[in-house]
Amino acid sequence: MSKAKIFSNRMIFRIAIGIAAAVISQNGPAAAQNKLDNAVRMVANPSQPKNGLGSPKLTELWSVGGEKDPSGELLNRPFEIKVATDGTVYVLDRGDTCIRSFDASGKFIRQIGRKGQGPGDIETLCWFDLDSQGRIYVLDWQNKRVSRFERDGKFLGSFRLEKFAAQIRIDPSGRIFCGEKSRGTEALSSEFRRIEQTLSIARYAPDGGSSVRIGPFPADPIIMKAQGESVMSLSSPQAPQTGWGIDPEGRLWAGFNGAYEIGVFDPDGKPLFRFGREFKPVKNKALDKLTIQNRKTTTLPEFLPAFVQDFFFDEKGNAWFRMYRNEEDKDEPYRYDVFSPEGVYLRQIAVPFKIYQVRNGKMYAIVETEDGFKTLKCYQFQI
After folding, report:
1. Which end of the chain is more exposed for a tag (fewer CB within 10 A), N or C?
2. Architecture of domain 3-382 in CATH?
3. Cα 59–54–30 angle (5° rounding)?
4. Smallest Cα–Cα separation from 117: which of 145, 136, 137, 93?
């Protein structure tokens, strides 16, 4: 599937969003508008969500880690959280190269994985996911392989990937999806090179066989600077790129954050529908710190991306997209746009921490204490 086909008629899509945003009801936000583009349905949402904006009432249920944790449990460099259907919480700790599991009340259960290159070992713990049976799939970037573990930590086996991958997702059928990037180089000068990247989603069978690729999608560019015999990367995490995920129905969502648009596809990559919302771009304050010379080669965009690429789904299939904010605005709350499985903009939620998972009225977060300790927290929330 070509990039042009997936993101074709982008201008028509933006115009459709603008029209929808202009139709504001006197009794509240305008309703989402459905349009057809090349026989693909597009849901154009206005800037205001259907159910409004707000901050939920939060009640902390339990906390793990930190100097005051009576269990003595410490988290080194927690990066990702997954919650199984039975409430078991899994935390990927890149600092200790392992996954830690906790029961629904926050009690430590076990550690899964260890650093190494042998069977069941992990060299570079990049990403992980759970299948419908609670089995754990770990993406080892350095070893270029996926390892499988039972819920009790028993090693089940592994398979090697065809290319380096940075993310992994498991669909309800047990199929494995990995994000792969491809590069093309363009010389800017004798000192600088610009590397354009594209993202493809590789789908593997549950046993690791018969791969199929979906895409390509736009990815973040990299600027390389030559320094003598070495090379320095000047890439920026704020560069527009495509985030992706697999929803509870097994559909692939791929969202380009250079504009506010997301495509929803079946597991074979067939477009089902697209959606987005009208939004006002936020000026990137980081550019104000650069010299005129550095601005010529930076990958920093003039405006921040519409949303952070790492979105997630709750148990109802609603998608949660975190909005970008400037580093200077770190005292501002984290804001999440919530969309229904049909692409309707339901609400915007503001909270004082980054949310990693939402399950059954609970939010799971990694919060840093004043002393610099990382803590895993579970909150009950009411909207």
Report:
1. C
2. 6 Propeller (2.120)
3. 150
4. 145
